[in-house]
């Protein structure tokens, strides 16, 4: 947004950018009418990589599916291109299925008699290198580091001892291999000894032995291979809700309800506990960690949100144990507005740093809030996501929907924010100065079907903000924009904004919908 | 296995003696990773079989092309290639080894890259100057311009080999490239450049050191990534040693002082850890004027981790100061640290504080250090007390045993009964040292009973250590003393109703016997062992057989014939198979001794 700020100044006289006209782009895993959704197929995490060339989704079945961008020119370009890409293409991003792998399996913790679901809670992309993709995926307990790489399938052609020549003896070649393996393993190097002795006894002629040949290997085709490189386990007593990479490229954090741990990517057997909010007496517990994220560029800054709706900024330089925050962002609640649900709906379900790290976007049950990390008196803007649900909080509490954890995302230029709602709807708000953009889209092939009239909103500039103003308050009351009945079962929890283009990927149950503008 | 394969060998036209090597070569491409690994580990054998020329022309290119393997295999390959010069025809052909290692320098697994860099350095340091210019320097430049950060990370570790043989123009180019690496946009590359800066700087001419290298260094010390800055701390020590003293004071000292007040505790931690090396680099005078205040700040740092690192260096640092300065500046901090809120700080302090005694001298020690020392001995955490006790010899020399024993004993007794068996184990291991320090008289009164008590500990490791401890005490104080203070007490316990304790005694007896000598063994120990041969538990009986076997070299032949053999013969008829087995072994051992003598 820093870069964007500069742009804003120039563009300021022209007013806010026009609202985006969202169009359907693609859908993966679309359901046919009447088809039942398999629980395991429901998408539980979405993440674009830094370049926006790849998209990963995780599902409740523990699978990670990768998509790659198909509309750009061959990305055989240099690393630097791939690292900080800014495609000046006129076309919108299109993706194609790349590969998938089973990241997590259901497990059972015998000590605690707990089932550990395979559901992928979060995916984070790591630094690409050597043309291979790297990502972290986590379920409730275990984080895994994956490498996805194109591998050439080798075919060994010529050998000294040709197995196929042993006609009539079955496959002697392989039986040699297996027998020698056995002796090797069982007797701890017994085979080695015998062959070494033979070799040592043998005098090699000066020019070598001409009859020996090296195997000839031919490569015909390639295939994508996903390998789990590291497993970071046994560090969390509670359920992991987030993982986040540090800008230093060597560390990442994982957060559960009460603790945040710091890991080195290369070391899987130890981590450091940097935040611990567990009270001595668990009965005193009033607040849990709901989400944690590293600052995109400052290696020592991280933010975490809590179930009380606060966001804490932590400076890792200050001390090894960062139980003391360096900044606290919390909105003072309006007096008199307190109800039974106030605390529940205040819980922050997701936070995201903007790309330049100046702003933090947070989502609680009813609103989306944008915070300036230089202003801890309150959010810069608040967007009402589904204000029409407010009278229904009691019902939502009854059926537990009130505890749904919606994610949020910012556009690459920091000018817009988005988050999901019920009935497979998601909303996009303009947060740039003067913008009153507010769009409701449906995750379907016709996103504008339920378009809500954008309400008027006081326009003002971000740079002159001294106090927070509520926005989007003029939303149409009633059940739903189109009078359709509210569907609490179809909730759009997960969505992600492409890092450099106006493109949103969102999950509706088992389907991945992509939109562009 | 070889007979089985014979038919096939003849069929595939490989001579029989060549069969193993043929298989070895084929297995370079086997599907089983263990076999591939095995072949790579024997790469030198394969090379000898192929001969130098074919190794150069076929094997090495083959390895260069087939680097799409598992990390373990690549790691092994990187290691083997580092010592491969003899197999490719000596130094003049050393350069053929560079291409496969160059590709290994770009893989994403750090340990493989590190090994490849290490091997390249090893080869490069042997290569002829011309070859370095023709082959090695271009390789470094290629890696430094690598597309992926992995190559650039590896490049940083090769400059110190490439630089010395380069021409002036090339040298200037290499310096420029290195400074670019220090500004790379990937922090991984900057970290590697920071780590390797000292090595590279050591090869750079003095004139450029002061200009180019110091500029690079300065940039690194201001990097916004903590992980880069903290590596630059090590650079301070390395560069400081290369610079003239006045340059060091002008350029390095201010950096150290700034680092010691860095915002990031990890950087300060590094300073605390490296402080001694840093002092060495800047020399004694600046140490006194600038680094003492810095060190005092670190000792009082807000962050416990920093204090731990600083506390661990108290002695080393005090040694380079005068006693007055140490008393004036360091000792007050030490006093504070001894009651630090973090047990780890106190523990770190406890492990080194005794070393300060010789620095301060006797008076200052008794007056100032002893109270600290005593309060640490009473610390509520066993680690702290243990650390003090383990450095006991140093204390004794300075303050004398009487003063020591008064305060020491309660601590020892308490630790000897600690809830954690590892603590008990640690204290047992110090007992012989203690015994030698305290002397016989003191030991008898206070510690003798403890040593016996441990023989009946609930934990096997403690009982085992206790038995071993008795042996070492007997060695320390001699057989006569042991005859009075150990043997009777031990033998008393042989009737313990629990067989595991009887087993401990048996173990103790077998350990004590060699120390006690033939006479005591025959008169005191042997009868007890023979009685145990009638024990109702088979485990005891076969251990008796083992102990008797261990007695063979100790006791006289007449005793063996009169007592040991009959006992073993009887055991050889035991209903239990293990007892029979071990008694037969013992009997065989007797027979063998008889035959040789």
From TrEMBL, chain A:
One of its GO terms (cellular component) is protein phosphatase type 2A complex. The keyword Repeat applies. PROSITE patterns: PR55_1, PR55_2. Pfam families: WD40. Keywords: Repeat, WD repeat. InterPro entries: PP2A_PR55 (IPR000009), PP2A_PR55_CS (IPR018067), WD40/YVTN_repeat-like_dom_sf (IPR015943), WD40_repeat_dom_sf (IPR036322), WD40_rpt (IPR001680). Residues 1-24 are annotated as: Disordered. GO terms for molecular function: protein phosphatase regulator activity. The B regulatory subunit may modulate substrate selectivity and catalytic activity, and may also direct the localization of the catalytic enzyme to a particular subcellular compartment. Belongs to the phosphatase 2A regulatory subunit B family. PP2A consists of a common heteromeric enzyme, composed of a catalytic subunit (subunits C), a constant regulatory subunit (subunit A), and a variety of regulatory subunits such as subunits B (the R2/B/PR55/B55, R3/B''/PR72/PR130/PR59 and R5/B'/B56 families). Interacts with SIC/RON3. This is Serine/threonine-protein phosphatase 2A 55 kDa regulatory subunit B. It comes from Tagetes erecta. The lineage of its organism: Eukaryota, Viridiplantae, Streptophyta, Embryophyta, Tracheophyta.
From TrEMBL, chain B:
The keyword Methyltransferase does not apply. The keyword Acetylation does not apply. Residues 368-531 form the Phosphatase 2A Regulatory Subunit A helical domain. HEAT repeats lie at residues 20-58, 174-212, 213-251, 252-290, 291-329, 330-368, 369-407, 408-446, 447-485, 486-524, 525-563, 564-597. GO terms for cellular component: cytosol; nucleus; protein phosphatase type 2A complex. InterPro entries: 2AA_helical, ARM-like, ARM-type_fold, HEAT, HEAT_type_2, PP2A/SF3B1-like_HEAT, PP2A_Regulatory_Subunit_A. SUPFAM superfamilies: ARM repeat (SSF48371). GO terms for molecular function: protein phosphatase regulator activity. Keywords: Repeat. Residues 286-361 form the Phosphatase PP2A regulatory subunit A/Splicing factor 3B subunit 1-like HEAT repeat domain. Belongs to the phosphatase 2A regulatory subunit A family. PANTHER family: ARMADILLO-LIKE HELICAL PROTEIN, SERINE/THREONINE-PROTEIN PHOSPHATASE PP2A 65 KDA REGULATORY SUBUNIT. This is Protein phosphatase 2A subunit A2. It comes from Tagetes erecta.
């Amino acid at each position: 947004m820093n870069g964007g700020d500069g742009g804003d100044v120039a563009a300021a006289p022209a007013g806010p950018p026009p609202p985006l006209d969202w169009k359907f782009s693609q859908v993966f895993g679309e359901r046919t009418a009447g088809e039942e959704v398999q629980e395991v197929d429901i998408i539980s995490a979405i993440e674009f990589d830094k370049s926006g060339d790849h998209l990963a989704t995780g599902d409740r079945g523990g699978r990670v599916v990768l998509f790659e961008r198909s509309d750009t020119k061959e990305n055989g370009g240099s690393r630097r291109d791939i690292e900080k890409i800014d495609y000046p293409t006129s076309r919108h991003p299109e993706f194609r299925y790349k590969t998938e792998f089973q990241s997590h399996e259901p497990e059972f913790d015998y000590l605690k008699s707990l089932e550990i679901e395979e559901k992928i809670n979060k995916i984070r992309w790591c630094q690409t290198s050597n043309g291979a993709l790297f990502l972290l995926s986590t379920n409730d307990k275990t984080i895994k580091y994956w490498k996805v790489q194109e591998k050439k399938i080798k075919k060994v052609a010529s050998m000294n001892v040709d197995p196929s020549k042993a006609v009539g003896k079955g496959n002697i070649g392989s039986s040699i291999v297996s027998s020698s393996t056995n002796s090797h393993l069982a007797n701890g190097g017994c085979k080695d000894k015998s062959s070494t002795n033979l070799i040592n006894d043998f005098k090699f002629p000066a020019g070598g032995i001409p009859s020996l040949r090296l195997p000839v290997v031919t490569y015909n085709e390639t295939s994508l291979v996903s390998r789990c490189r590291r497993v970071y386990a046994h560090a969390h007593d509670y359920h992991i809700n987030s993982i986040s990479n540090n800008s230093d490229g060597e560390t990442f954090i994982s957060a559960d309800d009460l603790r945040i741990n710091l890991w080195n990517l290369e070391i899987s057997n130890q981590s450091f506990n940097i935040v611990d909010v567990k009270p001595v007496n668990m009965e005193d517990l009033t607040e849990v960690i709901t989400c944690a994220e590293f600052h995109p560029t400052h290696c020592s800054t991280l933010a975490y949100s809590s179930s009380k709706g606060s966001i804490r900024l932590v400076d890792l330089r200050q001390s090894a144990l960062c139980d003391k925050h360096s900044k606290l962002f919390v909105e003072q609640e309006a007096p008199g507005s307190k109800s039974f649900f106030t605390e529940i709906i205040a819980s922050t379900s997701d936070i995201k740093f903007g790309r330049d790290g100046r702003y933090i976007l947070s989502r609680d049950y009813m609103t989306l809030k944008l915070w300036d990390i230089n202003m801890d008196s309150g959010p810069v803007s608040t967007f009402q996501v589904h204000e029409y649900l407010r009278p229904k909080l009691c019902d939502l509490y009854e059926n537990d929907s009130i505890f749904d954890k919606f994610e949020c995302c910012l556009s690459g230029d920091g000018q817009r924010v988005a988050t999901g709602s019920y009935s497979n709807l998601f909303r996009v708000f303009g947060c740039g100065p003067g913008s009153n953009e507010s769009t409701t889209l449906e995750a379907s092939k016709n996103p504008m079907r339920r378009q809500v009239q954008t309400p008027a909103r006081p326009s003002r500039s971000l740079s002159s903000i001294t106090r927070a103003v509520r926005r989007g308050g003029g939303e149409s009351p009633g059940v739903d924009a189109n009078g359709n009945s509210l569907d609490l079962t179809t909730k759009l929890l997960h969505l992600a904004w492409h890092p450099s283009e106006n493109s949103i990927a969102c999950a509706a149950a088992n389907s991945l919908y992509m939109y562009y503008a | 296995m070889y007979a089985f394969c014979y038919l096939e060998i003849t069929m595939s036209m490989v001579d029989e003696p060549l069969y193993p090597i043929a298989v070895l070569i084929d297995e370079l491409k086997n599907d089983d990773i263990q076999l591939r690994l095995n072949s790579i580990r024997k790469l030198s054998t394969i090379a000898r079989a192929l001969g130098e020329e074919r190794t150069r022309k076929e094997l090495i290119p083959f390895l260069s092309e087939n680097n799409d393997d598992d990390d373990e295999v690549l790691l092994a390959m990187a290691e083997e290639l580092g010592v491969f010069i003899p197999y490719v025809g000596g130094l003049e052909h050393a350069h053929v080894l560079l291409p496969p290692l160059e590709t290994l320098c770009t893989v994403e697994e750090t340990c493989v890259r590190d090994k490849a860099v290490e091997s390249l350095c090893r080869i490069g340091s042997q290569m002829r100057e011309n070859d370095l210019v023709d082959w090695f320097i271009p390789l470094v430049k290629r890696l430094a311009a690598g597309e992926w950060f992995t190559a650039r990370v590896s490049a940083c570790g090769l400059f110190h080999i490439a630089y010395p043989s380069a021409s002036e123009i090339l040298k200037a180019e290499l310096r420029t490239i290195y400074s670019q690496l220090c500004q790379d946009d990937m922090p991984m590359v900057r970290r590697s450049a920071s780590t390797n800066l000292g090595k590279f700087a050591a090869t750079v001419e003095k004139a450029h050191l002061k200009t180019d290298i110091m500029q690079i260094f300065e940039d690194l010390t201001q990097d916004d990534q903590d992980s880069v800055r903290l590596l630059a701390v090590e650079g301070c020590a390395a560069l400081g040693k290369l610079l003239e003293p006045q340059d060091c004071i002008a350029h390095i000292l201010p950096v150290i002082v700034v680092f010691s007040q860095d915002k990031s505790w990890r950087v300060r931690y590094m300073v605390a850890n490296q402080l001694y090396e840093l002092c060495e680099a800047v020399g004694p005078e600046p140490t006194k004027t600038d680094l003492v205040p810095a060190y005092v700040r670190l000792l009082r740092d807000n962050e416990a981790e920093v204090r731990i690192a600083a506390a661990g260096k108290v002695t080393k640092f005090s040694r380079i100061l005068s006693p007055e300065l140490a008393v004036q500046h360091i000792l007050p901090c030490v006093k504070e640290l001894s009651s630090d809120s973090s047990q780890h700080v106190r523990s770190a302090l406890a492990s080194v504080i005794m070393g300060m005694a010789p620095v301060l001298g006797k008076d200052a020690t008794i007056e100032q250090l002893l109270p600290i020392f005593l309060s640490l001995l009473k610390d509520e955490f066993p680690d702290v007390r243990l650390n003090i006790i383990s450095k006991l010899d140093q204390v004794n020399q300075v303050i004398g045993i009487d003063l020591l024993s008064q305060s020491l004993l309660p601590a020892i007794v308490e630790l000897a009964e600690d809830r954690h068996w590892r603590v008990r184990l640690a204290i047992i291991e110090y007992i012989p040292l203690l015994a030698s320090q305290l002397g016989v008289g003191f030991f008898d009164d206070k510690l003798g009973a403890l040593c016996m008590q441990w023989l009946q500990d609930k934990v096997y490791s403690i009982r085992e250590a206790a038995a071993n401890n008795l042996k070492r005490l007997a060695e320390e104080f001699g057989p006569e003393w042991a005859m009075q203070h150990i043997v009777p007490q031990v033998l008393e316990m042989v009737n313990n109703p629990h067989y595991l304790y009887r087993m401990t005694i048996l173990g103790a007896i077998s350990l004590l016997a060699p120390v006690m000598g033939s006479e005591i063994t025959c008169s005191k120990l042997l009868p007890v062992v023979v009685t145990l041969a009638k024990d109702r538990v088979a485990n005891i009986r076969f251990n008796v057989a083992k102990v008797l076997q261990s007695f063979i070299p100790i006791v006289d032949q007449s005793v063996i014939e009169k007592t040991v053999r009959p006992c073993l013969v009887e055991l050889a008829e035991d209903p239990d198979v293990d007892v029979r087995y071990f008694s037969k072994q013992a009997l065989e051992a007797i027979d063998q001794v008889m035959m040789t003598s």
